[in-house]
Amino acid sequence: MKQSILFVNLALLLPNVFVSGLKIASSLTTIEYTPEVIAIEDYYTGTASVVSGGAGSLFSDSTVDLASNAETQALRQFSVHNDLRIIYTIAQVHYRLVANKMKGINTLADLQGRTIGAIPATSSAYFVYKYLQTIGLDENDYTVIFGNECFAEPCAADTLPGMLAAGTVDAVGIWEPTLELAIRAIGNKAKVFDGQNAYREIFSLHTTTAKLADPVKRQEIVDFLQALNQAEQMFQNDPESVWPRVSNLLGVSESVLESVWPIHNFTSNIPDDLEDILIGEEQWIAAVDGRAPVPAAQLQNIVDRSLLDEVFPPVP
């Protein structure tokens, strides 16, 4: 009897010993992360939480089990943590660039010698680099200027839409919804360039080899990915049903979400060409970070598709 009472008391005092759950670190200002929240609220039967962070959180906080980021940040982390793994792609997103045509910008070539608002060392700056490279411009042919994101009008002066409207920059290249708000900030002066053939963001979930080797944690991750797949089907096939909830999460209007939704592909898989994309992109990331590129043979290890067979069992 005394042993039973002691056990109950310890359970009350130390609930974390007996209750486990997934902790997911994500950038809480991106459209791409929001299926994680819907999965937890609507489909996942376990315990999970989403906190602010990214791939680096897996190594700065041992309690983090999963982390979501674009591939640029995965490469940066893998260069110092070769136990990082990409296990599931949440979304693939095409980026756009908008310029002020009143400054004589009507083609990409007109951006030579201009100022372009972006966020250095991120997928924003890499997109600008890749897109302008398609017409023979390199990073010495234009100037990238940092600006902040914006989520709702009116955008502040230090945001990229505010800077474009004020003439501080001639063009802007970044993810949504900041790009859409930059277009709206200059109205009929906007010249929009679609960079889908130059670059697409691959926004994925990451974990570590240690988490994958733990049978209990691995099953929790599989269960969550199955729930995430269900949420993503809503995002892909019935977006109107999730826009109000995404709007509440991000503070972005449903009108803006409707405008940018078509360039978001909620995929529930890992693209076949991901390794090739990462090998090419690593050259730019390494140069930005001032380090040697990770060898291609080693970089192949960053992608782990083994969980997909457990999330989507083959049909007999």
Task: Summarize the structure in words.
The chain has about 325 residues and is α/β, with parallel strands linked by helices. The protein contains 15 helices and eleven strands. It has helices spanning about 1-15, 15-20, 35-40, 55-60, 70-80, 125-135, 160-165, 180-185, 210-215, 215-235, 245-250, 255-260, 275-290, 295-300, 305-310; strands at about 20-25, 50, 65-70, 85-95, 95-100, 115-120, 145, 170-175, 190-195, 200-210, 265. It is globular.
Gist of the model:
By secondary structure, this protein is of the alpha/beta class.
For the biggest sheet, the summary is: 6 strands, mixed
CATH class membership of the largest domain? Alpha Beta
Portion in beta strands: 15-25%
In order across it, which strands form the biggest sheet?
2-1-3-10-4-11
CATH superfamily of the largest domain: Periplasmic binding protein-like II
CA-CA gap between termini: 52 Å
H and E string: HHEHEHEHEEEHEHEHEEHHHHEHHH
Helix content: 40-55%
| Structural class by helix and strand composition | alpha/beta
Return the CATH topology of the largest domain: D-Maltodextrin-Binding Protein, domain 2
Coarse morphology: globular
The chain-level mean pLDDT equals 93
* Unreliable stretches covering 5 or more consecutive residues: 1-19
Tally of structural domains: 2
